[in-house]
Amino acid sequence: MMETEKFRGLNGNLMAFKKEVEHADKVTFAGIPGVCSPFAELFAYVIRDKESVFVPKTDLDSARKIERTSLGMQFTEEADPRSSVVALLGGLSMPQYEVDVADVQKMLDDILLPGGKVLGLCYMNMFENAGWDAKIDFDCIINGILTGEIYKKE
Fold first, then answer.
1. What is the average pLDDT across 36-44?
2. Alpha carbon of 31 to those of 11, 24, 49, 60, 122: distances in Å?
3. What is the predicted pLDDT for the residue at 3?
4. What pLDDT was estimated at residue 48?
5. Residue 113 has what DSSP assignment?
6. Rounded distance, CA 124 to CA 1, Å?
């Protein structure tokens, strides 16, 4: 893969994702519950006019809709995870969660519609560091680099 553009900040990250899925009617996110799920809700908010689904790890039977509620984006009823866009969240590649890349590939084979797109949404080069960029046929990886400062009273 080659770098095609840069973005800055959280808004730039969200807008890069929105642009990448602009022609999709539905996006299925897959990630680690508790770690990736808030990110799925945030990305789903940016595309709230589209159908969104969250799959915990690779458990297709537990797929849930992500819907806008008075409390923000929330997981609701069971959902069909088949989609033309599947967004893999970086936590899947973290060794402590013991997600087998072969299980992720099987999930993609099961739910990605013909001609569909596989996205990687991660921070700090997670997919590259885990070697998943060479094992999964990503169409696009949107990678954010986090930096920051801490301020305290003297």
1. 98
2. 21, 20, 21, 12, 11
3. 94
4. 97
5. E
6. 16
Q: What is the mean pLDDT of the chain?
A: 98
Q: Which position has the token pair 């990110």?
A: 39
Tokens read off for 119: 């996205």
Q: Any idea what DSSP says for residue 8? A: -
What pLDDT was estimated at residue 31? Answer: 99
| Amino acid code (one letter) for 70 | S
Contacting residues for 77 by C-beta, under 8 A, at least 6 apart: 64, 65
Domains identified in the chain and CATH numbers? 9-143 (3.40.50.2300)
- Enter the DSSP assignment of 50: S
- The whole-angstrom separation of Cα 134 and Cα 119 is 14
